[in-house]
Amino acid sequence: MTKQLSVNEILNFNDYFNEEGQKKLQKNFANIPFISREAIHHIKEGTFDVQKLDLIAFPMYSSNKFIALELTHEIASPANVDIPEYTILFFEQVQIDTLHILDNHLGMFLTNTEIFIGIYNQNKTTINLKLNEWKSEDFNTENLPSFWKLYAKFEKNI
User: Fold this and answer.
1) What is the pLDDT of residues 57-112, one digit of tens each?
2) Of 21, 32, 103, 132, whose CB neighbour count within 10 A is largest?
3) Residue 26 — very low, low, confident or very high, per pLDDT cuts 50/70/90?
4) What is the pLDDT of residue 3?
5) Looking at the predicted structure, is the pLDDT value of residue 152 above 70?
6) What is the average per-residue pLDDT within 22-49?
7) Range of the domain at 91
8) DSSP 3-state helix, strand, coil percentages of the chain (rounded to 5)?
9) How many CB atoms lie within 10 A of CB 137?
10) Considering the chain, what percentage of its residues have pLDDT values greater than 70?
11) Residue 111 domain flag
């Protein structure tokens, strides 16, 4: 600003912001469903509904589906995954045309009653998401919507 403001102008400062510029900025953000700690309890209770999740706006540019997750100790993950608790993980839904790049990537299995994080393993034409030696989920086209691949993470650095 190049001029001094009067008291009235200061009290009504929000009038100086261009609403169209704000709307344009919002168009560049995707509304992503967010699985919070509370939502994780709904999964464990069998009352989870992805349609009821809060949405967070984040700058992601893709036609694929995304979901965000607040990582907590309540979500089973492989022992060798070194991601601090309360990191926000962004997952992209697995697509048939990207199956060839899943091997050894971090992923998530999510249904209305189950959630875990694992590592994708590919053996010729079979793919599974493995939590540990006792727990894994085999990938097939019927359960495709339950498989997610890690896309990004938002981590608080201290």
Assistant:
1) 888 777 889 999 999 999 999 999 889 988 999 999 999 998 989 999 999 999 98
2) 32
3) low
4) 62
5) yes
6) 81
7) 18-154
8) 25, 35, 40
9) 19
10) 82
11) yes
Two tokens, residue 124: 């010729």
Give 107's DSSP letter. E
| Residue 131 pLDDT > 80 | yes
Q: Is residue 51 part of a domain?
A: yes
Q: State the DSSP code for 1.
A: -
Q: Are 119 and 105 in contact (CB under 8 A)?
A: yes
Angle among Cα 26, 27, 29 to the nearest 5 degrees reads 65
Tell whether 11 is covered by a domain: no
Q: Strand 66-70 to strand 30-35: parallel, antiparallel, or no bridges (unpaired)?
A: parallel
Tokens linked to 31: 């509304």
Altogether, the residues listed in the chain come to a count of 158
Q: How many domains does the chain have?
A: 1
**Identity at 28, one-letter amino acid code:** N
Residue 78 burial (10 A CB sphere; 0-12, 13-18, 19+): middle
Q: What is the DSSP string of 45-100?
A: HT---GGGSEEEEE----SS-EEEEE--TTSB--TT----TTPEEEEEE--GGGGG
Instruction: Check residue 6 and report its DSSP letter.
Output: P
**pLDDT score of 137:** 95
Q: Which CATH number do you get for residue 90?
A: 2.10.109
